[in-house]
Prior knowledge:
single chain; mainly alpha; 2 domains; two-stranded antiparallel sheet; 7 helices
Amino acid sequence: MSIRQGFLALLSEQPMGGYQLRQEFEARTGGTWPLNIGQAYTTLQRLERDGLVEPVPDDAAPATSPKGGPNPERYRLTEAGRAEATAWWQRPVERNAPARDELAIKLALAVTVHGVDIGAVVQRQRTETLRALRDYTRLKRDATTDGPGLAWSLVLDSLIFAAEAEVRWLDHVETAVLRASHTRPGSAPVAAVETPRPTDTKAGR
Length: 205
């Protein structure tokens, strides 16, 4: 999801300025995608350039904000912007091109570059993924599942499912490399390592 589409979705509710959009975006996505204020205003400028948003005329607004600075300009959707926001809700997220995954690339290279200890690479990654999984699970226990906390809870679910899938994939890589080492002459054997399973971390959920 781009910040651009996220802003269009938020502006379909009510006019907002750059600072408020940044706060709402971070709050509603559970703080997973932090924005700096420069990104927020740059995105607004591009949306205005493309005719998707426009400043809200507010003759009654004071020239300065309560904090003393210039009163921030608020933006609203144009008809084209509202149509774009509606179209975004209606179309699925396409998965045509796989995202660049550093871990997949690293392991793909590890099985082809001579002299790499693949078993050690897999084990170090498994340890790191299980650490992240424990952290996500602990945060999930403390997250509320209604009101504003629901967004963060759902983001944590996504992170937990992804980490569990990654551990399963690492197990598969280890098994596949071990099997290949038995059939490829001159290959170094890969030792299977006993490790905690992802299900061990579910107890606290």
